[in-house]
């Protein structure tokens, strides 16, 4: 059976109580019968609000990060246990903005994925090359290195993760990877997973980076693209709903 596609919205550091309310209600109203999975990854202070708003809908709740530590003196961090208390089912880990701005290494990202899994949260592990790396012909080497670290630490649990291929040069820039470019990398990631688990087909491989209402259908039609991690377009209900519709088609 073909697995259902997964569309995850990444709100990043956006939102207000009022705007979230309007956005969630509009998205929930637009999706009744779902042939795909929908997640919104919201800023931590809004988890309680969105947990309430999503009730009765098919929208799952996600976080944008998770601490690799269980508890203790880690000012500003949010633990997996805390996320679970608010009904969080998914957590983005290793987003390029966190790798770049917060010094997250491959090893830290792998530990975060492990912590999430240990608490019943599905990590959405982001990998992707910068423009300089692509131009230097290093795309394959970079994404493989990033995923290898997560495979190494998570062993046979690796089929429980979600992977998001997000070329850094495509994030928030309006430049999307072509469906062929994206598929090429997704096929590589699938191969790498297949070497680690016999359940590689189960793993959702998302594409992220300027996915929008206009380009979603073609990207999602690629063999190894099982969904999307959507930034900017997830903040506009009509756009997000169009992407969801493309995934449910
Ligand atoms: P974008 O962001 O859709 O705005 O490019 C995607 C992401 O960073 O997850």
Summarize the structure.
The protein has 249 residues and is an alpha/beta fold. Helices cover 40% and strands 16% of the residues. Helix 8 links the parallel strand 6 and strand 7.
Q: What topology emerges from the helices and strands here?
A:
Elements: E1 6-10, H1 17-30, E2 37-41, H2 47-53, E3 59-63, H3 80-85, E4 88-93, H4 96-101, H5 106-118, E5 122-127, H6 131-135, H7 139-154, E6 162-165, H8 179-194, E7 205-208, H9 216-220, E8 227-230, H10 237-248
Parallel strand pairs: 1-2, 1-8, 2-3, 3-4, 4-5, 5-6, 6-7, 7-8
Helix pairs in contact: 1-10, 5-7, 7-8
The structure holds 2-phosphoglycolic acid.
2-phosphoglycolic acid (PGA) binds near residues 10, 229 and 230.
List keywords for this structure.
249 residues, eight-stranded parallel barrel, binds 2-phosphoglycolic acid, 16% strand, TIM Barrel, alpha/beta
Give a structural overview:
This protein is α/β, with parallel strands linked by helices. The chain has one domain (6-248): Aldolase class I (TIM Barrel). Helix content is 40%, strand content 16%. The protein contains ten helices and eight strands. It has helices at 17-30, 47-53, 80-85, 96-101, 106-118, 131-135, 139-154, 179-194, 216-220, 237-248; strands spanning 6-10, 37-41, 59-63, 88-93, 122-127, 162-165, 205-208, 227-230. It has an eight-stranded parallel barrel, surrounded by five helices. Helix 1 (17-30) runs parallel beside helix 10 (237-248), helix 5 packs across helix 7 (139-154) and helix 7 (139-154) packs parallel to helix 8 (179-194). It is globular and about 45 Å long. The mean pLDDT is 96. 2-phosphoglycolic acid (PGA) is lined by residues 10, 166, 171-172, 208-211, 229-233.
């Amino acid at each position: 059976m073909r697995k259902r596609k997964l569309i995850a919205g990444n709100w990043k550091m956006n939102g207000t109580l009022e705007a979230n309310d309007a956005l969630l209600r509009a998205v929930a109203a637009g999706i009744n019968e779902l042939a795909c999975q929908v997640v919104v990854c919201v800023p931590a202070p809004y988890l309680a609000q969105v947990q309430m708003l999503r009730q009765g809908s098919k929208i799952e709740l996600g976080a944008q990060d998770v601490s690799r530590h269980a508890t203790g003196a880690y000012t500003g961090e949010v633990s997996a246990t805390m996320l679970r208390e608010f009904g969080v089912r998914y957590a983005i880990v290793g987003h390029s903005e966190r790798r770049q701005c917060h010094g997250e290494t491959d090893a830290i990202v792998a530990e975060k994925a492990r912590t999430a899994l240990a608490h019943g949260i599905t990590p959405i592990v982001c990998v992707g090359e910068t423009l300089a790396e692509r131009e230097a012909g290093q795309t394959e080497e970079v994404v493989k290195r990033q995923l290898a670290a997560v495979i190494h630490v998570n062993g046979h649990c690796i089929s429980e993760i979600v992977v998001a291929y997000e070329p850094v040069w495509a994030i928030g820039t309006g430049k999307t990877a072509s469906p062929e470019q994206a598929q090429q990398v997704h096929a590589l990631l699938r191969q790498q997973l297949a070497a680690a688990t016999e359940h590689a087909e189960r793993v959702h491989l998302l594409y992220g980076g300027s996915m929008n209402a206009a380009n979603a259908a073609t990207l999602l039609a690629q063999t190894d693209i099982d969904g999307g991690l959507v930034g900017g377009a997830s903040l506009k209900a009509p756009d997000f709903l169009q992407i969801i519709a493309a995934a449910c088609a």
